[in-house]
Amino acid sequence: ASELFYANGVAVAADGSFVAVVETSGVRVLRHWLTGPKEGTRDVLIDSLPGYPDGISLASDGNFWLCLVVPINP
Length: 74
Description:
- The structure is a single chain.
- The chain is mainly beta and 74 residues long.
- The protein contains no helices and six strands.
- It has strands at residues 7-12, 18-23, 28-33, 42-46, 51-58, 64-71.
- The strands form two sheets. The chain has a four-stranded antiparallel β-sheet with strand order 1-2-3-4, with no helix packed on it.
- A hairpin with an 8-residue loop joins β3 and β4 (42-46).
- The protein is globular.
């Protein structure tokens, strides 16, 4: 996908409907829809994180684990 700001981790949703993409420089997580009425589009899953994200993985309960490596300075 174009216009990504340092993509640094991906994880597919438990139901396969989207892939979550971590943007370290954008300090957010994007959702790229793979199926359904939004297929082929993208939106913001998590915005304005309190730190720079580095990696994401699917948790056993279907949620996501997200690592924040450095806090954002106020």
